[in-house]
Design brief:
Elements (H helix, E strand, L loop, with lengths): L5 H5 L9 E4 L2 E7 L7 E7 L3 E7 L4 E8 L1 E3 L2 E3 L4 E4 L4 E6 L3 E7 L4 E2 L3
Antiparallel strand pairs: 1-2, 2-3, 3-10, 4-9, 4-11, 5-8, 5-10, 6-7
Protein name: Cupin domain-containing protein
InterPro entries: ChrR-like_cupin_dom (IPR025979), RmlC-like_jellyroll (IPR014710), RmlC_Cupin_sf (IPR011051)
C-alpha cells in the first residue's frame, strides 16, 4: 500500500492511491475517517471546474495544496499553500484548473447551499 506521509504525498505519492466519490467532480481518499475523538484526514482531488458549495466549518480545517490551484472567496492557493479555516467560518471552494489537497477537519462541515 502506498505511503501517506507528508513527504510521500508532497512528492506525488497520492497518484498511487485509490479515490472514491465525494461530490460531483471531487473524489476523496480517506487517510483517517472521523471518530468520536479524532479529526478526519483525507485527500481531495478536484477536476477542473469542480466546486464544493458554501459550507460552515464546525471545527478547525487545515489544507495543504499538493497540486494545482484551489480557490475560495478569499483568493487562490497554489502548490505548497497552507490554508487554515477557523471554526464558524463559511466559504465555498472551487478549482478552475483542478487540484489535489491534503485536508484535515476537526469536525464535519455543514453544507449551507447547493
Amino acid at each position: 500500500m502506498p505511503e501517506t506521509t507528508r513527504e510521500s504525498l508532497s512528492a506525488g505519492g497520492w497518484k498511487e492511491l485509490e479515490f472514491g466519490p465525494f461530490r460531483e467532480g471531487v473524489t476523496i481518499h480517506w487517510i483517517r475517517r472521523f471518530d468520536a475523538d479524532q479529526p478526519g484526514v483525507a485527500l481531495l482531488k478536484y477536476e477542473a471546474g469542480a466546486a464544493v458549495p458554501r459550507h460552515r466549518h464546525e471545527g478547525l480545517e487545515t489544507i495543504l495544496v499538493l497540486q494545482g490551484t484551489q480557490s475560495d472567496e478569499s483568493g487562490d492557493y497554489g502548490v505548497g499553500c497552507y490554508v487554515v479555516n477557523a471554526p464558524g467560518t463559511e466559504h465555498s471552494v472551487w478549482s478552475d484548473t483542478g487540484c489535489v489537497v491534503l485536508i484535515q477537519w476537526d469536525r464535519p462541515v455543514t453544507i449551507l447551499g447547493e
